[in-house]
Amino acid sequence: MRDIDWKNEYTDEEGKIYLRPMTYDDAETFVKWRNSDSVKKFFIYREKFTKEGQIAWMKNNVDTGKAVQMIVAMKDTDRPIGCVYFLAVDRTHNKAEYGVLIGEDDARGKGYGTKIAKLMLRFGFKELGLHRIYLRALEGNDRAIKSYENAGFKKEGFLTDDVLIDGEYRNVVWMAAVNNTDK
Asked: Angle 67-95-123 (CA atoms, 0-180°, nearest 5)?
């Protein structure tokens, strides 16, 4: 990947937040966010995360190009507020799965989710050459689904009783954004 001036090239239109690559130094903060009840209730995978597990995951996935993991930070203070990522980066079909979490309580409900998704779509299409970026959302996570739609994702499918969480089968909404400028 080319040298990127993250703070200037991947900043939202209002200049409040920016993306930067996640480092091993961020692992402890990510684990704290991911294990918080306010975050994990919206995730399909709910097992407890550890710093050692996150570092191993980064070595096996991020360092090998199977995933991309970024920190979302406030531009004026560099304070991390969340994480965004592409999983299952598929170079054969130029697609990846999108995921995001806003870890800091005081950063939620301020519209950052849509801004983050737009930045990550631009990054995925421009820097990684992806054609399709997809995501899964639990039915009932209406705020996130609306945010994804505002960023450019479209609903593509609905899977009934797709996942078992806390002893209850839950429905999953599939969404995707496609780069039509690469055809």
From this structure: 70
CATH of 6-182, one of 3.40.50.970, 3.40.630.30, 3.30.470.20, 3.40.50.2300: 3.40.630.30
Q: How far apart are CA 174 and CA 41, in angstroms?
A: 18
Task: Write out pLDDT tens, residues 35-82.
Answer: 988 888 878 887 889 999 999 999 999 999 999 999 999 999 999 999
How would you classify the pairing of strands 132-138 and 80-90?
unpaired
User: Which residues lie closer than 8 Å to 27 by C-beta, 6 or more apart?
Assistant: 51, 54, 55, 58
The residues spanned by each domain of the chain are 6-182
Helix (H) and strand (E) counts in the chain: 6, 7
The type of residue at 146 is K
* Tokens 């306010």, residue located: 38
Q: 92, 74, 97: which is closest to 148 by C-alpha?
A: 97
The predicted model scores a pTM of 0.91
Averaged pLDDT, 4-27 = 91
Report, as an integer, the average pLDDT of 99-114. Answer: 92
Rounded CA separation 7/180 (Å): 27
